[in-house]
Amino acid sequence: MVGTDGYAVIEKLYDRGVSDYLSVPLWYDYIKFVQENDPSVCECSPVGVSKARNLFERALTAAGLHVTEGKKIWEAYREFEQAIYQTIDASDDATKDKQVQRIRNIFHRQLSIPLVDMESTLGAYKAWEAEQGTSQDVESCDVGKSFPHVATAYEKALDMYNARVNFEQQISRQDLSDTERLQQYMIYLKFEHSVGDPARIQVLYERAITDFPISSDLWLDYTRYMDKTLKAGDVVKDVHSRATKNCPWLGELWARYLLCLERGHSSESEICSVFEKSLHCTFSTFEEYLDLFLARVDGLRRRISFAGGLEVSSDYQHIRETFQRASDYLAPHLKNTDGLVRLYAYWARLESKLAKDIVSARGVWESLLKISGSMLEAWQSYIAMEIELGHIREARSIYKRCYSKRFPGPGSEEVCNSWLRFEREYGTLEDFDHALQKVMPRLEELQLFTLQQESRTADQKDINIRKNDREKRKSGADITDEESPAKRRKDALQITKKSYMKDKGQVQNAAELRKSGDKKTKIGDGMDQEEIKGSASDTKSKAYTDQCTAFISNLDLKANNHHIREFFSDVSGVGEIRILRDKFTGKSRGLAYVDFIDDAHLAAAVAKNKLMLLGKKLSIARSDPRKGRKESMGHSDHAESVSRSTSRGSTASQKSNYSTSKERVEQVQLTGKNTFARPRSLKPLGWDANKPRTNEAEDEKPKSNDEFRQLFLKK
């Protein structure tokens, strides 16, 4: 039991807490605190009982519709009333009957609301009715017969609860992030909006606000709904007040708060206090401050208009002071913006219409022209006001001031054409001729300037295109692009020479292997043709089977050796990885060769075909260099593969192979009609088959292998 002073302080804290956020446990603690510490409630005095009942009703209004936790408040309320029933004198039947009816009404109210565990509540109600003598036992108590309206309400509430069970489960999930949970609240709210029960919608908004107190979107949605549904009242004002406390950085909430106070006919001092608080907040944009100033001016204007005019000159002075504060604060930040023009246009219109002071209205526009004189909209709005008031001479003088100014874009031409249109509609023929004389040179000057700008733009565009092309060529070129032309020609000749020597070696190797195709041919050291076949077969096997390689296509262009090695980590046995790249840009072509230590690991790697790497499905196959070769080139392919396998050795090995090849040429007996050094199908220039053969013709006849060998040995 706390002291009197302490009780008042704690009670005030509880009251503030339950007013700011919806919390059933806090309401429950608040009620228990009052029941245990308030002397009048503890003594069950009429004042104390009335206070407790008012507190219970407040709690039910705020949290009684809470689907999952509202049951606690209802049960506490019933227990309190049943405790009072026990204190009533047994002889006071009227008071007892009245108390019984109060408890029955609480049961009926609870059974008509969709709450969790409604079946147990119905069972408790039947047991209580059995105690009152309504029925012999719980099973025989038929609520439908005794209280048909209660049974109907219970069935309806049960259907409503079943329709909301899934939504309640979604917002209670612990595995959801804050964003996902807020989204589930919004889905739940959309469902409640479709049902259309304002009390239930408000309770669900309060539940969402309790879980997400600084969600600006949620507060905006909540205040918008309250303004649309209730519009005015302490409840709506309380919602707006809490919205600005939780999200003070949102100017739109403050502007709505001012409108709410105006709808509720709040005092001028209260509205002014809220407006001053809003100006001390920090907003993300200056346009939000502008909206606040305009909302405040709107309220002042409506207040003066409803009062029936300007009875006192000081009434309009509040509007003028508000405009001046807005100009002083916003002009440096909103210079040359539509927002500032809108502010000054509103100000000038009120000066001319409401205050009937045209001089002050013109002074407002002149102040704006000093700040944003380069804005065409400012001049046009000034001219429009003068035309609306019928001041044609003043409008013409403004045109004369601004037609020669340079405005951004087509604004300069627009103001000239506007002046001509104005003189056609409002001026005399002399006025139109005078305007035409002023405007035409200006239009010609503007057209010339436009053509020059377009020409410069086109030239700059061409320069940019050429610059981009140079950068692309530079980025795609090799390092050799920086070398001198002579150096590049020399390198090209060396590359051509190396290619020629390689082709020549392949031709010689192919000739040796064709020579070994004759079974009767003998080698100088005694080796026959079958041994040559075996040797070539061994070499071929070494070239193709010793190296187990997989070919990968459809690689992601960002994939590197590390990605591929990790992809085959479960296979293991990975050797060298070769990613094919573009020779100019150096970028990956999406192809790669991967060597494995043996055929088993290669087979396991091929089994991973069609699996994903970096979001792309790979195509993996066994690499076969012989695939795609023509069958007629079989012998040549064999020689070429041997040449390739041989060329992988060191420089010393190449020299050794060259000397060995030379010895074989000297030892091999060349036979047959095959010739090389030129194709047999080609004839020398001037060849005539019918012409008698001379010595020159004999010299031009293709030589056989024996003749060519004799020439070679002579040399």
UniProtKB/TrEMBL annotation:
UniProt region (Disordered), positions on chain: 459-538, 623-715
Keywords assigned by UniProt, alphabetized: mRNA processing, mRNA splicing, Nucleus, Repeat, RNA-binding
InterPro entries linked: HAT (IPR003107), LSM_interact (IPR008669), Nucleotide-bd_a/b_plait_sf (IPR012677), RBD_domain_sf (IPR035979), RRM_dom (IPR000504), Suf (IPR008847), TPR-like_helical_dom_sf (IPR011990)
Superkingdom of the source species: Eukaryota
Compositionally biased residues, Basic and acidic residues: 459-476, 512-538, 623-641, 690-709
Localization per Swiss-Prot or TrEMBL: Nucleus
Domain RRM: 548-625
Biased composition (Polar residues): 642-660
UniProt keyword Transmembrane helix present: no
Entry-linked SMART domains: HAT, RRM
Pfam families in alphabetical order: Lsm_interact (PF05391), RRM_1 (PF00076), Suf (PF05843)
Protein name per Swiss-Prot or TrEMBL: Squamous cell carcinoma antigen recognized by T-cells 3 isoform X3
Gene source species: Rhodamnia argentea
Lineage of the species this protein comes from: Eukaryota, Viridiplantae, Streptophyta, Embryophyta, Tracheophyta
